[in-house]
Each structure stands twice: as structure tokens, then as C-alpha cells.
Amino acid sequence: MRHRLDRIWRALGTGLFLAAIGIGGSLLALTVFPLIALVTRDRCLRQKRIQAVLHRSLRLYCRAIHALRIADIDMTGTEQLKLLRGAMLIANHPSLLDVVMIMAAVPNVQCIVKGGLWRNPFFRLTVEGAGYIRNDQDPEALLRTCIETLKAGNNLIVFPEGTRTVRGQPIVLHRGFANIAIHAEVDLQLIRINCEPPILHKGNPWWKVPSTRSKFKMEVGDHLDIHNFLGYRYRSLSARKLVEFIEGYYTESHGHGCIGTGAETADRLGSQSGGYVS
Amino acid sequence: MTREEIFTTLSGYLVEMFEVPAERITLDAKLFEELDLDSIDAVDLVVRLQDLTGKKIKPEQFKTVRTVADVVDRVHDLLTE
């Protein structure tokens, strides 16, 4: 009986917290963001303040999910991410909560968001107010916008799988993130997210919660110096090598649960550098 | 340049710049779906083709390009203009 109640509580809570993102975000966009805009003329500073509000709200949000025992969220060891400036944050994407956890861990983030959300009444105000980048613009314009935001010191979150990870399927990455990193010449911070048992994953409605409480774990992975990938004759080749590398990284970390020790990466990079064309 | 020569040169670019396996390059091959080029690659390819033809290529001339044959045709048109 207790177990059953716990499961119902988690299902209800999951729905409640999903709704809170939409409603809470919209409320912020209607009250706090305009206030910030009113007192902050400078566009850059305004964005920073809005980012800070979102960061703090989402930190609180994650703590609440944890405290109300809807899911366990473990972000220990991710404090170093707060120091990042102008880097790309690359992560695997097991659930809907991933972006929330990253924003709770890193203060100054920008993200690329599905254009459809600008038509979604639930999210429209939030994504507009936060000034996120639409993915449905012309690819060259999108690339320019991303480079600009990185140069301004923002960290850009990209889930290179393009959509949530489907378990048991090979990891295939889109090349867009690599084009951005190569053109902007910025470093990449890899992040690994694990959620066991899965919840809010692709193709699963929110109310179908697993029989035991899910545990989210976010871990800091390798920090990749983009210069290790810039030695090729064409940027198109650099982008392909970068995609290959990161595909390998996440495929391995999925297979073994945990991977990416410094030594292994150095090994891999070392063996790659032999193939550089300069 | 004849169409055949343009095709050969273009194939060379595709292999060299985008690691497209040579055996997959045919006139009918679709650049984006089959040869795995993306829109940023296309921009780089256009720049390379400008160098080849010595002519400025307007983006709209390449907006409708889908297959290898389309590229060969555009380049051929440019060279015979």
C-alpha cells in the first residue's frame, strides 16, 4: 500500500513539476523579466540578470523535486561548471529534466530551442523572455547567433542527439554543434546525465512513472580543447572528426555506465592526432 | 570544362572536403540526404566552386541544388555564361 501511494505521489508530482515549468516560467516572464528590463537598459546585462533569475529558480526547482521525493537529483561535483565562460555544454539527453539540471548547475547559459515552443502557449513567454535561440532560422543565421552569444561569454547548451536519447539505439549525433564549436573556436565541456530507472524519457508519457524512485545523476565529463580539432585542412573535416570523437565518447559511457578518465581521452586524442592534415 | 570534367573535379572536392566515399558519388546522388552534407558544408562548397569558376556565386543560385547533377549544371552554366 505504501509503495502504491509512493508511486501515485511520484506520478502526481511529476505532472505538477512539469506544469510548474510552464506556469512558473510564464509568470516570471510576465513579472520579473519586465521589471528587470525596466531597470536594465543594457541588453547584455539584462540578459545576464534574466539568466541569473532562471538559474536560481531552477536550482530551487531541483531541490524541491529532491526534497519532495519525486526523484533523486545528484549534482555533486558539478560546482566547477559555474566557472565556465563561453564554452559549449554538450550532454546526452535521457529525459526532459536534463536542460533544467544543466541550467541549475551553470549560471550563464543560452540554449537553442525548438521553434515550435514559440507557438506553444505554455512556453512561449518563457523562451521569448529569456531570449533563447530559435532553431528554425536560416542555418547560417543560427550559426552567427550562436557564435555571438559564445563570444559574449555565455555558455551554450546543445544536445547533439537533437532529441532525447532512445535506449538501446546507437548514438547518432547531428553535426550542427560541431559546426558551431569549430567556427566559434570555443572549448566543449562534456556532461553525462544518467537517469535510473528512466522517467520523462522519449515516447513515455509523464504519468508512467517507474515502480521505484528515479535517480538523476549529472556528472562533469571531459573538457575538450577545440584546438585539438582545428588542425585539419577544412573546417568541414574538423567538424566531422569532432562528431566522431563525441559519438565515441557517449557510446562508451553508455556501454560502461561511466567512462572518460583523463588517461583514456589522452589516449584517444593521441591516436587521432596522427591523422591530422595541416 | 566539359560536364565530365566538372563532375570529376566536384567528386574530388566531395571526397577531400567532406569525406564522402568516392563510390557513392553519382550524378543522381542527393547531397544532403545521401552524401551527408549539411548547410554549412554547402557554403564551403560554394566558396570552393567560386575559386574554380573564378565567378561570384549568388546564394540563390545554389538554394535549389539537391543532387550532384544540379551542381554540375550550375557550374557548367557559370562557365559558359
Task: Give short descriptive properties of this protein.
heterodimer; A: 278 residues; 9 helices; globular; disordered C terminus; B: 81 residues; mainly alpha; Non-ribosomal Peptide Synthetase Peptidyl Carrier Protein, Chain A; 60% helix; 0% strand; fatty acid metabolism (chain B); phosphopantetheine (chain B); lipid metabolism (chain B)
Low-confidence stretches of chain B: none
Largest interface by Cβ-Cβ < 8 Å: A-B, 14 and 10 residues
Low-confidence stretches of chain A: 256-278
Task: Tell me the number of strands of chain A.
Answer: 7
CATH third-tier fold name of chain B: Non-ribosomal Peptide Synthetase Peptidyl Carrier Protein, Chain A
Multimeric organization: heterodimer
Give the domain tally of chain B: 1
Termini gap of chain B: 12 Å
What CATH architecture of chain B do you see? Orthogonal Bundle
Rg calc of chain B: 11 Å
Average pLDDT metric of chain B: 93
Global Rg of chain A: 19 Å
CATH class of chain B: Mainly Alpha
What is the strand tally of chain B?
0
Domain Carrier (chain B): 4-79
Modified residues (O-(pantetheine 4'-phosphoryl)serine) (chain B): 39
Pathway (chain B): Lipid metabolism; fatty acid biosynthesis
InterPro entries (chain B): ACP, ACP-like_sf, PP-bd_ACP
Give a summary of the structure in a few sentences.
Chain A is of the alpha/beta class and 278 residues long. Helix content of chain A is 48%, strand content 13%.
